[in-house]
Amino acid sequence: MNGDELHNKNEGEVVMRRMRDGGMTLIEVVFAISILLIGVTFVVKCDSTIYHYRYQGEVRQQMLFYAAGQLERVLENQLVIQGAASGNLEFASFSVESTVDDVPSCSHLKVIKVVVSVVPHTTKSPDPVTLFSYRAN
Predict the structure, then answer these.
(1) Distance (Å, whole) CA 41 – CA 36
(2) Is 111 helix (H, G, I), strand (E, B) or coil?
(3) Are 119 and 110 a contacting pair, CB within 8 Å?
(4) Rounded mean pLDDT of 35-60?
(5) Which residue(s) pair with 94 in the sheet?
(6) Neighbours of 93 (CB within 10 A)
(7) Is the overall model pTM greater than 0.70, yes or no?
(8) Distance between CA atoms of 23 and 11, rounded to whole angstroms?
(9) In 39-66, which positions are buried (b, 16+ CB within 10 angstroms) versus exposed (e)?
(10) How far apart are CA 120 and CA 9, in angstroms?
(11) What's the confidence (pLDDT) of residue 100?
């Protein structure tokens, strides 16, 4: 090969490279948009999950506060107040169950149990809160 043929061959490769590097193909655009949509979907899912768990945490704190108040009422031999009868809208959806039982192994102890749950129970509702206390006879 002489110098002119080699030079023409190199120019042809350079021209072909420029034509290939001139822009993006349709498949590259589709891949780029797909990756972008996957990222946006992930961010939106994470955001909704964060709000779900934040809501559950707030409701669980309210349930714990309410259960502690109801446990004090039971310890003072007062009747428990169901959430709807409390007069507070924050506690209106809470249901309270309280039991006072003898401890089987110790005849001089009683176990007091208060369970607060959300009514109606849904998949977004937090688990019930259970508080125990013991009292000597």
Answers:
(1) 9
(2) strand
(3) no
(4) 90
(5) 118
(6) 17
(7) no
(8) 20
(9) eeeeeeeeeeeeeeeeeeeebbebbeeb
(10) 79
(11) 81
